[in-house]
Write a structure and sequence with these properties.
mainly alpha; 3 strands; 43% helix; SNARE binding; coiled coil; 3-stranded antiparallel beta sheet; Actin-binding Protein, T-fimbrin, domain 1
Length: 129
């Protein structure tokens, strides 16, 4: 959970607003980590609370791309599920990147929040790691 909101493995198991709000908190956390740890993120995060998104700066080449073709929403309501899933994958890639840069093992099978918790433990109490 983040800020009291559950972020389940199966995003369809929870209410859309709860999931999108939790993902908004994760987005904000990642932006702050990127800023204070001075780690540029591979995928640009666009924080807008429960309507946050991820932008792929290297969008697929198109003759006339739409302004939103490289923006992937971190919410499900009213969007294509494949774009939502891609946004989650991009967010997880950013988490993996930050952990790797900081020398913290990223567990592919662990929940995104568990991996972030490992980062905090290593930064706050490094002798326990």
């Amino acid at each position: 959970a983040i800020r009291g909101l559950d972020l389940p493995y199966n995003y369809e198991a929870k209410d859309d607003e709860v999931v999108s709000s939790a993902l908004g908190y994760v987005t904000h956390l990642m932006l702050m980590l990127s800023k204070y740890l001075q780690i540029p993120l591979r995928y640009q995060l666009v924080y807008s609370a429960s309507r946050s998104a991820v932008r792929d700066r290297v969008a697929p080449g198109r003759e006339t791309p739409s302004p939103t073709s490289n923006i992937y929403p971190l919410y499900r309501r009213g969007v294509d599920n494949a774009r939502f899933v891609t946004a989650i994958e991009f967010l997880q890639a950013n988490v993996r990147q930050v952990l790797t840069v900081r020398g913290v093992h990223y567990d592919e099978k662990a929940h995104m929040l568990k991996n972030l918790n490992e980062l905090f433990k290593s930064e706050i109490i490094p002798e326990l790691m």
